[in-house]
Amino acid sequence: MLRTAILVDGFNLYHSLREAARDNHMSRNGTKWLNISSFCTASMHLINKDAKINCIHYFSALAKHIKPQDVHLRHRTFIEALEYTGVDVHLGRFKSKEVYCSNCKAYNIRYEEKETDVAIAVMLTRLCLLNETDTVVLITGDTDIAPAVRMVKNCCPEKKIWFCFPYKRKNNELVKLSDGHFSMTLKSIRKHQFPDTVNIGRKTIYKPEKW
Fold first, then answer.
1. Domains of the chain, CATH where assigned
2. What is the rounded distance in angstroms from the CA atom of residue 166 to the CA atom of residue 147?
3. What is the pLDDT of residues 7-26, one digit of tens each?
């Protein structure tokens, strides 16, 4: 068995799924209600016939500052569905900062996602250095992860690093760093959506109305 760990950059994935929905004129029955575990399991043959998932880690943050409040509540509902399928969820935070606008001559509040990139890099390093996996698949197209990948490949050359690029997020710099790569297609995204209702014991999770 080839132990395979999956690390998911939640926001990079989310924005790609929104783009896929817009490109293909989807709304209610769109792309964002993605069963990540199902998609990854179906993709293992692309890596190796013996590849088996030993963990999936999803990294994101709840945008509680965005109005209306149902924005982050929809995200929380999605997280519940992920956890039901065995995905480990790691939440960072948003930090506010003042930014001066030269056009309006005033300071505005902006929010930045914090900790997520570092958390992914730390998990990648831990999994490889502690020999908790043989292969890591990074679901992202963000080059912020590149330094961590280089370090791991130097320290643990026997470990294989693959990239799964979200829709329209393929990056040539990351391709060159990887031992292999594949991309999410609209067909695969549509195929691996959760059902509209997900039953968890006595509880039922409903697909958010705008997803």
1. 2-199 (3.40.50.1010)
2. 20
3. 999 999 999 999 999 888 77
pLDDT digit string, tens, across residues 75-130 = 889 999 999 999 999 997 655 555 656 667 665 656 566 689 999 999 999 999 99
DSSP 3-state of 47: coil
Beta-strand pair 135-139/106-114: unpaired
Could you tell me the two tokens for 132? Answer: 């908790």
- Phi and psi angles of residue 152, each rounded to the nearest 5 degrees, phi first: -65, -40
> Locate tokens 């990239």: which residue?
163
HEC secondary structure over 120-184 = HHHHHHHHHHCCCCCEEEEECCCHHHHHHHHHHHHHCCCCEEEEEECCCCCCHHHHHHCCEEEEC
Q: pLDDT tens digits for 142-181?
A: 999 999 999 999 999 999 999 999 999 999 999 999 999 9
